[in-house]
């Protein structure tokens, strides 16, 4: 493991205020800089089957946030989420990786090689599970609730029509927080989900600069 683990309990003064909004706030195990949990946070998530378009949008989104006092949040999954973490870390934007398994299982995952740069960005890795807990399908739904709980706003870059990302969107809406979706081609399977989200009421991100402008104007 790459450092000390901090345990944050729901009744602790150090517990992230945003996450306290959940009906049953979970205990957190945090590897890295807990200060990232108190910054204004924007979740950038999406398809594991990231397209060239999705990669380009994710990188541009992170670049437009560079220099702002914010942190990004994602689920460390291969695809859009991992791209958001890597780009944020490269730009020295603190990035928060939320796991669907225990911190002790992390070294077994392909994404482990990126953890050092995530921590070096001033970010952290968060889990609500016991140290050796293995990945299971239901845990990723619970992880998505934590991503929503930690985020002021959510941007879905790409998603299939029946994507698990829909769980995160629904959790955000239940908390009354902003959901942005990136429009894409009607011929792209990875944009059908985001296009559908826009149809259902998500805010279309028509220009990359909108996110920075809304952040600076406190209108996320």
From TrEMBL:
Q: From the record, what ranges are coiled-coil?
A: none
Q: In its UniProt entry, what is this protein called?
A: DNA-protecting protein DprA
Q: Which InterPro entries match?
A: DprA (IPR003488), DrpA_SLOG (IPR057666)
Q: Which SUPFAM superfamilies match?
A: MCP/YpsA-like (SSF102405)
Q: Which domain of life is it from?
A: Bacteria
One record GO biological process: DNA-mediated transformation
Q: Where is the Smf/DprA SLOG domain?
A: 8-212
- The family this protein is said to belong to: Belongs to the DprA/Smf family.
């Amino acid at each position: 493991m790459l450092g000390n683990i901090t345990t944050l309990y729901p009744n602790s003064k150090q517990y992230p205020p945003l996450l306290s909004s959940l009906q049953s706030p979970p205990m957190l195990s945090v590897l890295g800089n807990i200060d990232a949990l108190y910054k204004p946070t924007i979740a950038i998530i999406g398809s594991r089957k990231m397209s060239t378009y999705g990669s380009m949008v994710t990188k541009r989104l992170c670049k437009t946030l560079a220099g702002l006092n914010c942190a990004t949040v994602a689920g460390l999954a291969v695809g859009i989420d991992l791209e958001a973490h890597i780009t944020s870390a490269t730009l020295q934007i603190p990035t928060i990786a939320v796991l669907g398994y225990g911190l002790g299982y992390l070294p077994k995952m392909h994404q482990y090689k990126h953890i050092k740069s995530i921590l070096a960005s001033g970010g952290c890795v968060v889990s609500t599970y016991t140290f050796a807990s293995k990945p299971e399908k239901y845990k990723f739904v619970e992880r998505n609730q934590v991503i929503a709980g930690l985020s002021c706003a959510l941007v879905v870059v790409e998603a299939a029509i029946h994507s698990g990302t829909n769980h995160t969107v629904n959790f955000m809406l239940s908390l009354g927080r902003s959901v942005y979706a990136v429009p894409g081609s009607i011929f792209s399977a990875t944009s059908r989900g985001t296009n559908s989200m826009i149809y259902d009421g998500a805010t279309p991100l028509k220009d990359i600069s909108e996110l920075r402008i809304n952040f600076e104007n406190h209108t996320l």
